[in-house]
Amino acid sequence: MTSEFFVDFKVQKDIFKRALEKDFSITEIQQIWRQILIHFLSISPIEQISMGSHQFSAAETNVINNIVQRLHNKEPFQHIIGEVEFYGLELKSDARGLIPRPETEELVDWVVNDQAFEPSNILDVCSGSGCITLALSQLFPDAQVSGIENSRNAISLAEENAISLKLPVQFKESDVLNTNQFKNTLKDLTKKVLFDVIVSNPPYIPQAEKDNMDLVVLNHEPNEALFVPDDDPLVFYRAIAKAVLPFLSTSGAIYFECHYLHLENTRKLLIELGFNSVEKRKDMQGKWRMLKARK
């Protein structure tokens, strides 16, 4: 009988780092390593602190190597572990919805820190996986919080997350670019009170940028949630802004995440459509990424 094969902790960690260093930063590799130990090997963060003398079994090594191969095949790590953290919430993550980005957390942060009083009615347009909707529901527990999304698959993912988190949000299936359908949905959601806050992170990447994007995104995230026609990159902003203006409360505001190259044109569009006090803000990378506008 042959003895089981073991690999020294430091040796395995170094092999792991070298296997991924071409595609990920050191910080990302460290985060992925910690998450693998937690989610696949049931080793808690506290236990990881004193693992220097740990010997990985052949089975454990195979688990790690399998994940490395999946990462080499351009599968998002969030899909491999099946979850992603967004604004303190653990959300289920799979191909039905976009993986939430840090820039979107910054948008939520702006909304949260901008409210002098708790809003009564909040809407997330193009809600996708529901990350914004759910974060705002968690932060404003007395508000009615709704999401509007065209993809039935994305709504199913968002609803699963809402049930898991026990958050009382509602998601409506509606096509923003279908004017009558979108307006009817807005009417339905404002029967009792107008919106105090509207947030939207709509599709905004021109088709021409596809060739420069990572296969991790192109092959595993819904393209319809990312791309817009090259000849009309503001199509969603125009449709949303036109429709929602009558449904905003007197002191209400709309917050947009934008393509940094098209933010200024989006700002001008909002002014032309009747919004005022249009404010822009940079993300942590120094790019003009967000807009806020009032009636």
The major β-sheet equals: 7 strands, mixed
- Give unreliable regions as ranges: none
* Beta-strand fraction estimate: 15-25%
Strand arrangement, major sheet: 7-6-5-8-11-13-12
Instruction: Kindly provide the radius of gyration, computed on alpha-carbon positions and rounded to a whole number of angstroms.
Output: 22 Å
Number of helices: 12
Instruction: Write out the CATH superfamily name of the largest domain.
Output: Vaccinia Virus protein VP39
The top level CATH class name of the largest domain: Alpha Beta
CATH topology of the largest domain: Rossmann fold
User: Separation of termini?
Assistant: 78 Å
Sketch the topology as an H/E string, one letter per element: EHHHEHHEEHEHEHEHEEHEHEHEE
Let me know the number of strands. 13
